[in-house]
Model the fold of this input.
Amino acid sequence: MDGRITYGDGLRIELPGGERIAADASHPDGDVAVVTHAHGDHLYRQPPAAAVWSPLTRDLADVRREGEALPERVEHPRIELRDAGHVPGSRAALIDADRTYLYTGDVSTRDRFYLEGFDPPSADVLIVESTYGTPDYEFPPVAEVRAAFGQWVAAQGDRPVICFGYALGRAQELEWLLAEADRDRILVSEAIADLDAVIEDHLEISLPGERYESVDEVGPGDALVLPARLRGSWVDDLIERTGAATAGLSGWAVDSGYRFARGLDAGFVLSDHCDFPELVDLVRRVDPEAVYTLHGSAGEFAAHLQREEGYDATALKRNQSRLSQF
Ligand SMILES: [Zn+2]
Done:
């Protein structure tokens, strides 16, 4: 019998013995819940009683879902978690059953700042994210982005600088970059500061951001890191009032329209995902018998793997089951 893979509410893998794994599901109803990382689109809405996840992801979930029941952290004899290099605490799941299954979750193989890139193990069946799964997405080296960002910040002189990014992952990278760029103060929102405290504790690092009491304190020479979703309303007033320069960092900044669409003064290419060449390299290193792709350019990436690399590759479509036969 073959395992059955379904992509719908998260990823479901039904092992030949009948055991059901629900990974990154909002309503995990399998026998085993796996949570790869604490980004909102991978974290449950209805908490399972227990989950296979890293201690850091569990503590980050506790901050993000304050006041809700927190699933117990359990281990599973068939599931090994490997550092996925995406955000603090993120893990890929290597499942040892009739054959080995590797589910990457969101993944980056690139070392950057305090994060080590994913080191792909070999597996029979690979289920890989493909956010940037077309050849247009090739990211510059981190050192180049660091230098360009530092120069841009320096060129702003005394103007406050406001940087936008996800509260988990990007915000901490921005703090790191801004510390190198030598700003008077690096201020962060309360949501970011709460996550920083957990990350500092687990990874034994020190992040330079200080929680601001009120945005009224933002002045010349300061830098401010805010969650991207806060654009609009009071943030626009703040930019207007202080004359702040704004920047965003994302893999999507490869597209020239990125900063215009978001009304930013500058955009820099920095991602917590693999770019296209890194995705191809990841697949080669896992060297699976079958590949399933999900998220972003899943169809195009599967077609590329099939055509150019000779893999048995399939894009997972929502609510369609696939037998992992080959
Ligand atoms: Zn993510």
